[in-house]
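Ticket closed. Logging final result for Allantoate amidohydrolase.
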Amino acid sequence: MTFEQMWADIAPVGRSASTQGYFRQPYTAAEMEMRAWFSEECTRRGLELEADGNGNLVAWWGSGDDAVLTGSHLDSVLDGGAYDGPLGVASSLAAVDVLRDRGFTPRRPIAIGVFADEEGSRFGIGCLGSQLATGLVSVEDARLMRDRDGLLLEDVMANAGLEPALGRSAWLDRVGCYVELHVEQGRNLVDLEAPVGVASGIWPHGRWRFDFDGEANHAGATRMEDRRDPMLTFAQTALVASTEARRTGQRATFGRIEATPNGTNAVPSRVAAWLDARCESEAMLSDLVASLEKAAAERAGIDGTTVAVTAESLSTAVDFDADLAARIAAPGGWPVIPTQAGHDAGILSTAGIPTAMLFVRNPTGISHSPDEQAGMADCVAGVDALADTLQELTR
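Final structure:
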């Protein structure tokens, strides 16, 4: 089956008729349908499929250790794009087809992985499946995670027939290196006029929860000067975040907020807001977050509100294996570029596995949105680049 055929098969899964975006949150019907599709494609190719208790899937071509792992994830952000994650999975299957059509037999195993809950859109922790597989997140902590509806991760996984596995996943010990293909989440390749690129590393990034507390009151009867409005404190903090990030060339985003009681005619008593921050260095990230905490506290003093900041996740800078990146980039002359987005590749690299990434050009430069794009010719070029890479690493 060609890449184009596979892409047509999965295009409708989890797609919103109104926005054309994708809702493939972990352990929901749409994401489970995607997992079933992957299983069927692996069976079609005679690949040996296994699953760990954390929801990660791995399909093997060949036996033994020192495998070259490729793949990505199948879940999406809320109202996300089609390519983020599934492009890497479909391309991995297609790359196996290309190698077989070439008559190539790998001398070391090739594995295709599907990591669970990469986006963190449901339980708030990005790359949860790979973090559990590598042991970077403990099962004890994971079992206590809740989604927005208050459902425990442990219960959600149990309903899906899974049970969080203790410690590092056994299959990971068979992996010698990891190469992940992904749509580019930015415009580097557009500017460089290249269909494919290779990643140099990932900026450090994290998520912080800001809880602004004030006093609920009537929207009409309460004079402006008498209010203790946490929404105002949040709004001023969000403006400072934008100003500071623009001034220093970094990234700061408040993309999710929850107001209580969330009434149109009421001053809220609390506003919870989640900051996503990404910087060129860990020192710059620390400085940016510290400056926002200070600005929020100062504004709270003016508004008669309070603010508490909780770090929910933090990913340190990742430098991908330079020799591996150069080896992958050289045959096609692909440019080597940085990325500000987090990936399972970053988790595996942090866990000590030599890791590299291939990017496919995104003509819009937009991601985590229905406007995320990749041309079919570029997707096929990505499949060929991945096939060449797997052949180079396993011959």
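Residues 205-315 form a domain with the Alpha-Beta Plaits fold (CATH 3.30.70.360). No further action required.
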